[in-house]
Structure formats: C-alpha cells, structure tokens
C-alpha cells in the first residue's frame, strides 16, 4: 500500500470528508496541518501552486482535493492508485 499524505487545516469540512473516506476504507494516512505557513508553502510547491485544502497525495501521485478523491472512488480508480 502506498503512503497517503493529506494536507489539511483544522476548520476545513472538505478535509474531514476526505479523511472520512480513508477511515471508511481502513486506510492509514499522514495528516499535515498547513496552518503553519512553512508547511503551507511546502504544500503549495508540491501541489503545483494549488492553495486550497485538502491536497491529497498517494505515493508520488497528486490526487488533488476532496472532490477529486471522491471522483476516483466513484470511478473505481482509487484502489488501483493505492496498490
């Protein structure tokens, strides 16, 4: 299983929703809080300039945000990316 990293803030409902999908699938993930400006700057660079949260990475693949994650799940592609 590839490493999952999710960049979040503590007040983001989309972050909660994305983490809930991972929790339902019993997947472990690393959560990085980007309320710290240094962490936010790292996220923006890694995400190709995207500033919104969540930003989700599976291994080296940039999934995008919550809607992107749920779209992959709906299309049956999320499990393929994870393995």
From TrEMBL:
Tell me the ranges covered by the Glutaredoxin domain, including all copies.
Answer: 4-63
* Keyword set, alphabetical order: Cytoplasm, Disulfide bond, Electron transport, Redox-active center, Transport
The record's listing under Gene3D superfamilies reads: Glutaredoxin
What's the domain of life for this entry? Answer: Bacteria
Q: Where in the cell is it found?
A: Cytoplasm
Concerning PROSITE patterns, the annotation shows: GLUTAREDOXIN_1, GLUTAREDOXIN_2
**Annotated InterPro entries:** GLR_AS, Glutaredoxin, Glutaredoxin_subgr, GRX_bact, Thioredoxin-like_sf
Asked if the Swiss-Prot or TrEMBL record annotates the protein with the keyword Electron transport, the reply is yes
Q: Name one Pfam family in it.
A: Glutaredoxin
* Keyword check for Transcription regulation: no
Protein family membership: Belongs to the glutaredoxin family.
Q: How does it assemble?
A: Monomer.
Stated role:
Has a glutathione-disulfide oxidoreductase activity in the presence of NADPH and glutathione reductase. Reduces low molecular weight disulfides and proteins.
Task: Supply the name of the protein.
Answer: Glutaredoxin
What organism does the UniProt record list as the source? Candidatus Megaera venefica
**Taxonomic path:** Bacteria, Pseudomonadati, Pseudomonadota, Alphaproteobacteria, Rickettsiales
């Amino acid at each position: 299983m590839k490493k999952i990293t999710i960049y979040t803030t503590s007040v983001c409902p989309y972050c909660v929703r994305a983490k809930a999908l991972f929790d339902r699938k019993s997947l472990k993930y690393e959560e990085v809080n980007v309320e710290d400006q240094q962490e936010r700057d790292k996220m923006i660079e890694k995400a190709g300039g995207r500033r919104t949260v969540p930003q989700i990475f599976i291994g080296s693949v940039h999934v995008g945000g919550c809607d992107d994650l749920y779209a992959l799940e709906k299309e049956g592609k999320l499990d393929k990316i994870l393995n």
